[in-house]
Input
Amino acid sequence: MAPRRESARARKARAHVIASRLAAEYPGTAKELCALRYETPFQLLVATILSAQSTDVRVNMVTPGLFAVYPDPPSLAGADPESVEELIRSTGFFRAKTKSVIGMAAEVVERFGGEVPTAMEDLVTLPGVGRKTANVLRSVAFGLPGFPVDTHVLRLTRLLGLTTETDPVRVEFDVGPLVPDDELGGLSLRLILHGRAVCVARRPRCGDCILNDVCPSSLVPARPTRPAGNEGAAAS
Output
């Protein structure tokens, strides 16, 4: 269990242990771990916008039909809003999402020559794209640094003592420096998987958690300390 008062160096070392164990438990790159189905960065951007207040499963049910008709920025930019609304209706908030994805596509065409930008400062200027969506795109589609903060990530990073912030952007800036840039996207997705499978909000399974001995919020006695092995060597 982490001490209540923890130095920045100790927190970074503990963050490395957390990231290493989660990587072993949920292996794969950010691209491999992403549940949304897509063929191009543009399609991932559309799917991520549609996933707001919805589920990946639901989004994956509607995007094949949507992308069959509107596979790229020019086609979606010129789409009939009523047609798009009908295709994405089941994801919820379909009118607002239709406005966002059509507007996003139009700006990608007009301002970026039909190519989705990679820079955070450009992505967040597109309709329907905030930092969370931009970080998904950067880390999954482009292999760039990005730490998306959803409700699971927000909850688990606080429980694990990696941050005390409640604002997603501040959490992103708090956790980002704790792990290497190329691990940020994968860490976010693994925290989501762990939050769904083990660290469940209403009934956390602390006794089954691989992070039990390094989690300050554990509800059960910590497991015996694991051998340092690669964890200790990398964290030193």
Observations:
- The chain has two domains: 8-29+147-230, 41-141.
- Residues 232-236 have pLDDT under 50 and may be disordered.
